[in-house]
From TrEMBL:
It comes from the Bacteria. Keywords: Metal-binding, Signal, Zinc. It comes from Melghirimyces profundicolus. SUPFAM superfamilies: Metalloproteases ('zincins'), catalytic domain. Pfam families: Peptidase_M1 (PF01433). This is Peptidase M1-like protein.
């Protein structure tokens, strides 16, 4: 995500949805259920009631050790009982209620508390086996919610269905919602979503979408993504194009005509730039949806779909939000394809994404703001001295202004320092190697440092320790 308040210079964004599609699932054959969860969601949209209702099911392949329970995040419930800043309180609440929960066809014990749903499995499910959980649901879309939002004739469906929590060696990741950063962590999954929406709405999603407004029920499929976002709208027009073989659609509302073409050009340039330097974008389509999607959000990333503001205020005045579009698209690489635990180590995607954004702005837009970035990062030394906080903390450790500096600015400045140290080509090689090695997986800070050291042919741990953890050097630097 990118928040408005982060940099003195830039600002908000939103992305909307890109999806890869039906074709992909067909080409790749039946998803391997031993590998990835398979979501099947029916979603009937009632525009008058601002609700989505339907049936939800997910087939969960069990790996590692036997499971006796599953957890799901019901993030929309954060908007039912808003516990964060009054300024970001939704105008009208939203929620996600579930009922008739079944496991392998049999009614199951379950407990919902706030944004967390626990489902008890009647018998343990062993590694190599698959269990299927299903339920009916009612989603109320909040008016003025962050990301999940409704305005005019547009519904932004973000983190809108029961999202399977991740269980790994550390146990279940059932961290609560917070308004700081992107409090979401999910694994690669396959999706089949059937939308039933009133006539005349355009559907923009994580999958490859239908070019025209939808007139009846449609099923979209997308394999190998971490999330499935959708925008249901009558307010948007597209500008269509391609970056290589990837369809790049930019969606704008009335009043944004003056920036639509420029931002679409930037989106294509961004997709080409990141693809060339980091590695190929693996999906067929990406959608950029312009417009604010909630308080303080300049832009947001989802697989195959990003949101961005149309314009931002900079030192030079109001301008098209090119950097926000670039930022959110870079998240397709850092978050989308190479995942990380965004709750535990948010710097890993935000820092690399901010660096990618600045690389793009410098090389393609001729705008070198790295000095500004490095200057802003200097503030973090002070903050660390005062509060002891570093760039590798969980979301809950940061207040909003500190979050931007520690998680976006300092790591991006760190990467520029690495460019000074190793040269740009070497740093790009580090990023492309990291992308190649961890694509469709979840990486950690240690993984990144390991790859960087390997590619650089030197131990970079002291460098990263200093920048990320504010550690003093282990040995004094050699005099020149
Ligand atoms: Zn971001």
């Amino acid at each position: 995500m990118k928040r408005r308040l982060f940099f003195a210079v830039t600002f908000m964004l939103a992305l909307a949805m890109l999806l890869e599609s039906t074709c992909v699932a067909a080409e790749r054959g039946v998803p391997d259920l031993r590998e990835r969860p398979y979501y099947s969601i029916q979603a009937k949209y009632n525009d008058a009631a601002s609700k989505v209702t339907g049936h939800f099911s997910v087939k969960v392949p069990v790996r590692g050790e036997a499971l006796t329970e599953l957890y799901f995040h019901l993030y929309p419930n954060a908007f039912d009982d808003w516990k964060w800043g009054a300024e970001s309180r939704p105008e009208e609440p939203g929620y996600l209620k579930v009922r008739d929960v079944k496991v392998d066809g049999v009614k199951a014990r379950h407990k919902n508390k706030g944004t967390l749903l626990n489902v008890q499995l009647p018998t343990p499910v062993r590694p190599g086996e698959t269990t299927q959980v299903e339920m009916d649901y009612v989603l109320k879309i909040p008016k003025g919610g962050m990301r999940l939002n409704r305005f005019k004739n547009t519904a932004f469906l973000a983190q809108w269905y029961p999202m399977l929590a991740v269980k790994d060696r550390e146990g279940w990741h059932i961290d609560p919602y917070t308004s700081t950063g992107d409090p979401f962590y999910s694994r690669m999954s396959d999706f089949e979503v059937t939308f039933d929406i009133p006539e005349g709405y355009q559907l923009i999603t994580t999958a490859q979408d239908f070019p025209d407004p939808v007139s009846s029920s449609v099923t979209l499929r997308q394999a190998n993504v971490r999330d499935f976002a959708a925008v249901i709208t009558k307010d948007y027009e597209p500008v269509r194009g391609k970056a290589g073989k990837t369809k790049v659609n930019l969606w704008y509302q009335k009043g944004m005509e003056d920036v639509a073409q420029e931002l679409h050009d930037a989106a294509i340039a961004g997709m080409e730039f990141f693809g060339k330097y980091f590695g190929p974008y693996p999906y067929k389509e990406v959608d950029v949806v312009l417009g604010e999607t909630g308080y303080g959000i300049a832009g947001m990333e989802y697989p195959g779909l990003v949101t961005s503001l149309d314009k931002i205020t900079t030192r030079k005045g109001e301008r098209p939000a090119v950097n926000v579009v670039a930022h959110e698209l870079a998240h397709q690489w850092w978050y989308g394809v190479v995942g990380n635990n965004q709750v535990k180590e948010p710097w890993l995607d935000e820092g690399l994404t901010t660096f990618s954004e600045f690389l793009f702005m410098e090389e393609k837009m001729g705008e070198d703001e790295r000095d500004l970035l490095v200057k802003a990062a200097e503030r973090t030394d002070e903050i660390n001295r005062e509060k002891g906080i570093t760039s590798v903390e969980s979301l809950y450790q940061y207040s909003d202004p500190i979050y931007g500096l520690m998680v976006y600015t300092r790591p991006a400045a760190m990467m520029w320092k690495l460019v000074d140290k190793l040269g740009k080509d070497k740093v790009l090689e580090i990023m492309s190697t990291y992308y190649d090695r961890y694509r469709f997986q979840t990486a950690t800070t240690r993984d990144f440092i390991r790859v960087a050291s390997e590619v650089a042919g030197q131990d970079l741990e002291p460098f990263f320790d200093r920048w990320l953890y504010f550690k003093k050097d282990r040995a004094p630097e050699k005099k020149k």
